[in-house]
Design goal:
2,3-Dihydroxybiphenyl 1,2-Dioxygenase, domain 1, seven-stranded antiparallel beta sheet
């Protein structure tokens, strides 16, 4: 099994036929319970599985969805929300292992993190909580815990809410209740329904803005509006500004420079970006940037998947007056940054010696 392979870099803890004794694993999965497959036309492929194998089509999405065209099927929807997930984007193909409790899920998560295996993303799918990573050959693996909420008055098609499995179990359970209240109307019709996958217009200067150590981040589209697929913001950097070196463990960033110039350090390389240039920053790579020009720099930032906006909300300071000079970097700000960073998969590094 994939997880056993990752857990056993040597054969010192195996029996005579190479199996790891169950009492040494500390936690168990219950087997493979669904697969995510590439399909050039998910809707047509779903009809194939329905007509030939009698599976039920649970849901799907069109090509303009943040995840692209998808389809979900189950042969026993009262037990499994889906057993086959079809994706037009091959990057989402995966194999999924189910665990029997939230405690087991967090135990597996801790094991993967302890082995320095990068977590690709974590998600509250409504019907399940899950995290994803790659095996040694680049195949994506999902480990999930079904929440048990398969009632027909709730949509069985998985959706996407940000998740942080490093949080205590009681916090995760409370967050599940909050997310459910946002996502679905209450019986009395008073609950707020989250506006997923709806057209969104953001007038200039109306998105919430936050000051960090060297830049101002203005939210444009958040993960709540993209089912967790991406977060988009406008970043303003005064002359001499820019964050210290850091590493994102959970997301990729793409910058599109609109104004000014930036010197970007990434993966040991120095890039000089001018208006119209774009830069892709993969996860797991040390990077930082600085405005080395004499005018304000401004760029669009797209973060995939979403979730980094929660870090900005927690660690940065609200920019009440967006046109004011950046606030000084105080010990209180640094304390917030250092406390919040590990919760959101961020490694903050000391600045390089001048």
């Amino acid at each position: 099994m994939i997880l056993a392979t990752i857990d056993a870099p040597s054969f010192n803890d195996t029996d005579s036929i190479g199996r790891a004794p169950s009492n040494k694993l500390g936690c168990q999965n219950t087997g493979i319970h669904h697969v995510g497959l590439f399909a050039s036309n998910p809707a047509a492929s779903a009809e194939f599985y329905r007509d030939l194998l009698g599976m039920e089509i649970i849901g799907g999405s069109s090509p303009d969805h943040p995840f692209g065209a998808t389809a979900f099927l189950s042969s026993r929807p009262e037990e499994e929300s889906h057993e086959i997930a079809l994706f037009a984007n091959p990057a989402f193909a995966h194999v999924a292992f189910k665990v029997s409790s939230l405690t087991e899920l967090r135990s597996f998560y801790a094991r993967v993190v302890e082995r320095n295996i990068p977590i690709k993303f974590e998600a509250n799918h409504g019907v399940s909580l899950a995290f994803y990573f790659n095996d040694p050959d680049g195949n994506m693996v999902e480990v999930y815990w079904p929440t048990g909420d398969l009632s027909r008055d709730q949509p069985l098609q998985p959706h996407m809410e940000p998740l942080d499995l490093s949080q205590p179990e009681e916090v995760l359970l409370e967050n599940m209740k909050t997310a459910k209240a946002r996502a679905f109307p209450a019986a009395n019709g008073n609950a707020t329904v989250i506006e997923r996958n709806q057209p969104k217009f953001v007038a200039a200067g109306t998105g919430p803005a936050y000051w960090g150590p060297g830049d101002q981040v203005t939210f444009l589209i958040t993960g709540e509006q993209t089912s967790g697929a991406f977060f988009m913001a406008e970043v303003t950097v005064p002359p001499g500004g820019g964050p210290p070196p850091h590493i994102h463990r959970r997301e990729e960033e793409t910058f599109y420079l609109q104004q000014g110039t930036l010197t970007i350090q990434v993966g040991g390389k120095t890039l000089q970006a001018s208006p119209g240039d774009s830069v892709y920053l993969p996860r797991g790579v040390v990077h930082c940037f600085r405005n080395t020009g004499n005018m304000e720099a401004k760029f669009l930032m797209v973060v995939t998947p979403a979730g980094l906006e929660k870090f900005f909300e927690e660690a940065f300071s609200p920019a009440v007056d967006r046109s004011a000079a950046p606030p000084p970097i105080t010990e209180a700000m640094l304390t917030r940054l250092l406390a919040a960073a590990p919760k959101y998969g961020l490694d903050l590094l000391p600045p390089p010696l001048e």
